[in-house]
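$ run holo --ligand "C2G" --emit tokens
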Amino acid sequence: MRKVITYGTYDLLHVGHINLLRRAKAQGDYLVVALSSDEFNAIKNKKAYYPYEDRKTILEAIKYVDEVIPEYNWEQKIKDVQDNDIDVFVMGDDWTGKFDFLKDYCEVVYLPRTEGISTTKIKEDLGLKGTKGQD
Ligand code: C2G
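-- output --
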């Protein structure tokens, strides 16, 4: 079984997220999503609208997603890859190069982002003040 992992906040789920998850799953047979905790979002300077448990419930309902684990920090990726027997690490290409250190442990794939959509754009279009971060 070829196992894939990807990471993210996945707040206010939109088609960009779904496009990423569909293509990540297509890289293998089993997709693990490491979902940013509320505390880690604060470290990423992001304020998610939905709390971790709700974002987890939503992701688990997506047919491409096989398992959701928590992402607590920047440092856990190598251990996650080893502990979960991961073959492929996938991220959107806004992260190109940032996780190449994982090439010693698994394949690393950066996929083109979906243009014209982001959680930040949704918040701005809805006139929600104080929007932080990007996705
Ligand atoms: N994404 C995309 N197209 C968009 C928006 C997002 O392909 N229009 C992808 C991102 O590239 C990322 C995933 O969807 O691979 C999740 O995006 P975010 O929730 O914004 O994740 P991010 O805050 O970038 O967290 O340790 C890594 C971090 O946790 C990544």
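-- notes --
The longest strand covers residues 30-36.
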